[in-house]
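ok so i was messing around last nite and threw this chain in just to see what happens. nothing serious, just curious
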Amino acid sequence: MLIGQDLYLFIDESGNFDFSEKGTSHLVMSVFFTSRPEVSSYRLARLKYLMLAQGINIANFHASFDLQAIRNSVFNELANFRNVGAHSFWLSKSDQRLDSHEASLIYGLLGEAISAQLIGSILGANISTVILVFDKALHAKDERAVRAKLKPLLVKTKIPFHIYFHNVSKDFNGQVADYVAWAQYVALERQEFRPLRALPANLAGSSNLLDAPRGLRRVTPSR
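result:
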């Protein structure tokens, strides 16, 4: 975990919350963290404007929709990021340990995992505030439920925090979280490992969300 004045966590998911036969088999929720969001944002903004100058019409980066050439450029840029990190939490929807399929409860599990990681990694460190920025993919009612779940968990860190819901397409750091989540997702869902292998080690850590509260463990989807 990074040390700095403020710690920013950008959270995005890949897959969906549809637990019917029509839904995805996996759900991935990735946390990209940095104490210097302006630096990582600048690097992706620069890449975007270089592409515009080359005649590539790119409004924002979105891994599941971007052309392969654009993805390659983004992954190359991510490989050069310094003083940042990411950890992904994934679920297999067929896991019988999952008691509820409600989005707010799953986010509650994510809150347990994040708070446990914060407690274990930065307790007593020089972090003044933790800022969590989630993708605005939920209805207002679900957002309120997520806040209600996360707040008591994050209070345990004894570090001041703020929770926001923003559109990741409008934040380059959120777009990093999108790429990280997508790389993990396609490895799990489609056994497509090239994007995961393109991630640098500091962005490629992952855990089964149902195991994470009992201690993080680095795992990689079996090849």
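not much to say yet. Residues 215-223 have pLDDT under 50 and may be disordered.
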